[in-house]
Amino acid sequence: MKVTFFQRFPNPKFLSIEKLFSILNIEMIKRGIDTKNIYEVNPNFSLLGFIKTNLFFKKNQSEINHITGAIHWSVFLLKRKNTVLTIHDAGNISELRGIKKYFFKLLWFYLPLKKLKYVTVISEKTKKELVALFPWAESKITVIPNCLTIPYQDFEKPVNSKPVILAVGYYPKKNLDRILQAIIGIDVKIIIIGLLSPERIKFLHDNKIDYINFERASEDELIQAYKDSDILCFPSLYEGFGLPILEAQEMKCCVITSNISPMKEVAGDGAILVNPNSVEEIRKAINNIISDSELKNKLLELGQQNVVKYHPEVIAEQYINYYKMILDQK
């Protein structure tokens, strides 16, 4: 079987999709799949880039064409019967207004969904978002989740002098302000991944919160942060998937996350679920893990059991079976 991955123009600031499919690519090669990677012609969307990319992609088709995400508009000259589009989330639509929203919805979602027979999404949440906007597309959409993207690590968890909490991300949807409010007065250290505003730094100092900050963590720094942490606090307000949950479970961290989709599905039984709008629930979950060693050990055990379902070899097999189904229907 020959599979071509069509990917967006490489950008060091945005590599999550590329990293995901590079890992899946390795697993597919191990299983005898002949893969190739083709990239968008221009780094920024433009009419000329649109035309060039679609023509370039047309010339590089194979048995299975797979657009891995973001550049949904590049489907138009690919064959309908053997092309897959992966959509990671549809949240951007609601954030736009006016003519920009119209063209984004048309080129990134409506026309690609109309053209193609095969669409994958990374969570039931994303599928529900798409079906709410385009009910007629439901039968085309299959859920294949993201895989774990950090390498397996065999290590001994350090015994910290006081509990260490990890918070990943600083955008409003990551809910960092409520996390910081929740730990006021609790004797913990917090590792924060993401840019801290002057207001947040002042808040940390005013409330005597012990913290470490990485504005932009490398993969090695992120892995080390997981190793050093006892708890991932991830009460996000919105996610397309929620990969930090799996990373934390793999790295032997207890997980606190939101009781909403897709986080609650991704976490399985290996997390404490909280109302992300409730500082008190977040605070209670942190205190419960700190004070109850039996609960902590149970969360770690269930987390390790859950994350196995998302190991790269498992997700790669799901895609391979999906490709086989497409070829059988040609």
Automatic annotation (TrEMBL):
It comes from the Bacteria. Keywords: Transferase. The keyword Transferase applies. One of its GO terms (molecular function) is glycosyltransferase activity. Pfam families: Glyco_transf_4, Glycos_transf_1. InterPro entries: Glyco_trans_1 (IPR001296), Glyco_trans_4-like_N (IPR028098). This is Glycosyltransferase involved in cell wall bisynthesis. CDD domains: GT4_MtfB-like. PANTHER family: GLYCOSYLTRANSFERASE WBBK-RELATED. The lineage of its organism: Bacteria, Pseudomonadati, Bacteroidota, Flavobacteriia, Flavobacteriales. Residues 160-301 form the Glycosyl transferase family domain.
